Amino acid sequence: KAGVTQTPRYLIKTRGQQVTLSCSPISGHRSVSWYQQTPGQGLQFLFEYFSETQRNKGNFPGRFSGRQFSNSRSEMNVSTLELGDSALYLCASNLGLAGLSSYEQYFGPGTRLTVT
Amino acid sequence: AQSVAQPEDQVNVAEGNPLTVKCTYSVSGNPYLFWYVQYPNRGLQFLLKYITGDNLVKGSYGFEAEFNKSQTSFHLKKPSALVSDSALYFCAVRTGTTDSWGKLQFGAGTQVVVTP
Question: Residue B40 has what pLDDT?
Answer without folding.
Answer: 87
